[in-house]
Every structure is written in C-alpha cells, then in structure tokens.
Amino acid sequence: MVEMSESRFGEQVLRPDRERSSAGMLHADSIPERALLQVLAMSDRHGLPASTMIAVLAREFPGDYGRSLMQVAAAISNGYSVVDALQQTPGVMDRSLLMALRLADESRALPEMYESLLTGSGNEETQVDSEWSNPLSELTQVGFGFLFAMLMITFLMLFIIPTFEQMFSEFGLELPAPMLTLIAFCKWFANYWFVLAAIVIVLAIALSAGRMASVGVFLTRRFNPLARGDGFVSPSASLISLLAVAARLGQPIASGVHTLARFSQRADTRRRLGKVDERIDRGEEPWHALASERLISPRDAQALVATDSGRAQAWLLDRSAAARQSRWVTRTRVVTSAMTFLCTLVLAFIVAWAAISVFMVLYSLVSSLS
Questions:
Q1: Nearest 10 degrees: CA dihedral of 358, 363, 365, 368?
Q2: pLDDT bucket at 20, cuts 50 / 70 / 90
Q3: C-alpha distances in Å from residue 172, one per residue of 163, 165, 168, 260, 368
C-alpha cells in the first residue's frame, strides 16, 4: 500500500497509495483536463510513449486546446519531462493541478497523483455546496429578465408610444408625467449606451487582472449557464492544499516551499513564497515563516510545528484549506446575493415604471374621451 522511495533531496519519502484524499480539495473538473490526466495515467501504467498518446488526444479537441496539446507532445518528444512540457504550455491545465503534479514529480509519485486528481477529494467539507452548482444561477436569470425588459421597452418605444403621442396630439392632450419621464430616459439611454458598455468592459478587464483574477474566474463559473459547477478553489485555499500535498508526499516543507516559489504562476503568490524561502534560508522555522507572510495562520503554524508526522500535517493543512475555502465562498455568496437582490430591485422598478406609464396613458385617454 505504501512504499519508500528516494527523493531528489536525498531523503526517504512516503509514496502514497491511491487514496482519494492525497490531493486534498484539488481535482480536475473539466473534460479536457480529465482526458489529459487519464491519458497520462494510462501512458505511465502501460509504459506507452506519452507524446504519441497526447498527440492522438489532441485530435479530439479541435481549436486552441488541441494545438496546445500538440505543443505539449512536441516538447515531450524533444526531451522535456511531462510536467515541464505542461508548465511551458499555458492553458493546458489548471495552475493548482500543475503545481500538484510538480510536487508529485519531485517525490516520484506522479502515477498516484494522476489517479488522485481524477478521483477528486474524499472530504465532503471541502466541496462547494450543490446550490452553487446550479447551471442557471439566479443572476443569470435576472440577466435574462433585463433582456426581456429591454425588448419590451424597445417594442413600446417603436410601436406603442408613437401611436399614443399622435393620439394625444390630435386631442390636444399632454402625456402623463411617468410616460414623459420614460421617453426621456429611453432617449438618454439611446445616446449614451456606449458609456455603460465601456464601464462593463472595464469591469471585465479589472476582474481578469491582478488580485481580482480569482474573483473574475469565480464569477465566470458562477454565472455562466454553460460552465461546469464543480466549484472554484480560492488561491489561498489552493496554496494550503498544495502544502498539504507536499506534506503528505513526505517532502520537507522547505523543499516544498522552494518548489512552489520557483514554479508558481501567480505573481503575488510567487513573491510571498520567495520571501518565505529567504526566511527559511536564514534559519527561520518553515511553518513560522509561512505564518509571518500570512499564508497560514499563527495558530496553524504552532500546531504544525508540534507534530513531525507528514500525514498529521497534511490533515491539519487540509482542514485549514477547507475552512478558508468556506469563508471565501461565504463572503462571495454575500456579495453575489447582494448583486442579485439589487439587480432584481432595478428590474422590478423598470417593469413597474413601464407598466404604470402605459396604464396612466390609457387612464388619461379614457378619462378625456368620457
């Protein structure tokens, strides 16, 4: 079940069996990623050339992803390792999964990590609840509501309101104030709609860059009706899960931090881990160094220092990652629920405004005729 092997750091490390919890909350949830991991696992299990099998897999995915897979296959054919080939080809695999493979590669446990990332987490507490897996989320429904409201108002402005204006003009009457206000608003919107579109584009760019990138990815998965709903792991929880992977694999935490600092694709995480690596080089205890950069809590650092068992440390880190993920999901849920509530209020106001305007016109017309 568990065997000893020599790591590149010259120490004995545990090669885990194929337990579902070996990758913590990290797991592949997209079809291309799962297909690639299955191909890599099959290649390793049967001793088949990975480059050839990846090239065959690339034919199943036309477009950019298929071309990226061909680049991976070419890199492996040129002598790169599987992990190095994946690392130098952006977009082929999620960054957290790639770092888990990197840690497993240094501990010579890639086959087990393939299986672990495919089976997913065995801890139910690390999963996002089923409400967040709804493919038609509430904000998407509100978006369709706005679209319907805009179509309704456009129809009124093109066909109904001109008729009312002509009738009131022939009778020498004035349109009610709600209808005049609605007409003025629609004319303003027709003149300045591009400003609102520019604001939306700027927000989209802001959500795809820097520290807001993780929020942008989450919102994309949360509100996209076609996206898979397996949840999004926050960057802080992902990093702690990777530390748990290193501990479970039996790596010294110093070497795990060094690997993550060297290969992490998130600039902020790489910078903070670099500072931790420097602290460790100066002789500071690794867990306290991580706590000093607020990558783990001081309480967790004390508990991790108190035990030398890799599995106990991995369990503590998994619990910490699950707690951080839960807090992050809760905060994001509050924000998105508030957004949904505000959008619903705006939609209700628009619909009520249009309805009242039309009924006031009809009431004024009937009153004048009677």
A1: -160
A2: very low
A3: 14, 10, 6, 77, 10
Q: Hey, what amino acid is at 233?
A: V
Report angle CA 98, 101, 104 to the nearest 5 degrees.
155
What pLDDT digit, counting tens, does each position of 315-335 carry?
999 999 999 988 988 887 787
CA gap 124, 129 in Å, rounded: 9
CA angle 268/301/271 to nearest 5° reads 15
Q: Provide the whole-model pTM.
A: 0.70
Q: Are 2 and 14 in contact (CB under 8 A)?
A: yes
- Within 13 A of 53's CA, how many CA atoms are on the CB side? 17
The rounded distance, in Å, linking the Cα atoms of 86 and 68 is: 9
What are the residues whose beta carbons fall under 8 Å from the beta carbon of 60, sequence distance 6 or more? Answer: 35, 66
